Amino acid sequence: MVIKGEATVVKHTGSHYMLSILPDWDLFPAVLRGKIRLKGSSATNPVAVGDIVSFEADVPEGAVVSDNVTLENPAVITAVKPRRNYIIRKSTNLSRQTHIIAANLDRAFIIATIDYPEIKLPFLDRILVTCEVYNIPVTIVLNKVDLYRESHKEMLEAFHEIYEGAGYTVMEVSALTGEGVDALREACNGHVSLFSGVSGVGKSSLIKALDPSLDPKVGEISEVHVQGKHTTTFYEMYSLASGGFIVDTPGLRGFGLVDLKKEEIALYFPEMLKASENCRFAPCTHTHEPGCAVKEAVEAGEISYDRYSSYLGMLDEEGKYR
After folding, report:
1. What pTM, to 2 d.p., does this model score?
2. Is 117:200 a contact under the CB 8 Å cutoff?
C-alpha cells in the first residue's frame, strides 16, 4: 500500500533523512527521489532540517508510517514545500557554494562564550545579520558564565552594552551549574528553535541540560588551538520533553553572507538602520560620505566601534565574492 503525506525533516546524514509529522515525534527514514532542486537556489543541500516535504511510502496494509518502516524500505521525498524562512551561509574560502543550515524556524539562539573559546564578534555579527535578513527572531546565549563572570567581568559588561544596545536579548547560562537553563527552556517551549555557534561553545551540553533524556555528542576543547573539536557532524532536530524542538548544528568555523547587496547590509544592523535616518545622503554607505549620521554615532560612542568594524568587513567580503 502506497501512502502519501507531508512531514518535517528532523535529521540529515549524507543521503539519508529522518522525517516526523510534527508536532508528533514518530520518526521514519526517507531518501530523495532523483534530483530535487529549489528554483533559484545555489545551495548544496536541496533539503534541510526543518523543511516540510511531501513523501510517499510503501507500507503493509493497515500499517502507519513510523519507525517500523526500516531503512530497507524508506519513504521517498518527492518535493520540498515553500520555506517561510531559513538560515543560509556561504563558505569563507571564496567558494560560491551555499548551504542551508535550517529552515522554517520560529527563533534562533546563537550560543557564544566570552572566553574558552574566545568570542569572535565578526562571526557573531554575520549570523545576526542573516537572521535579520530572513526575519528570524534571535537571542544571544552566553554559555559557561560560571567560568568567566569574575575573571572577565569588564568584557562581559561590554558585551551586554554592545548587543543589548543594538536591540538584542542576551541571556547568561551555564550548562554545568544550571544557571539560566530554566529560562532558556521556557523560551524554547512551543517553538522550533535553532541552536548554532562556533565549535566548543557547549551547544550539545546545553541541549542535554535542557532535557537530560537527550544524548547529543559532547566534545572537548582543543588545548592547542583553544577552540572546539567538531562533535556534531550532521544536522539534527531534537524534541524537548518540556515542549518545543531544537535544531542542533555542527560547530561553524566560517559564515559568509548570501544574497545581500553591498548597499543593503547596513539595513540589517538595527542600530545603524535607526541612525541612518539622519544621514545627509541616501543611499549612504556609511564609509566616506559627508554628513553621515552613522559615522557620527560611532565617533560619539552611540554605536559600537566593534559592530561598525564588522560592517566594514562585510562590505569588503561582499566585494571579494563579487
Report:
1. 0.85
2. yes
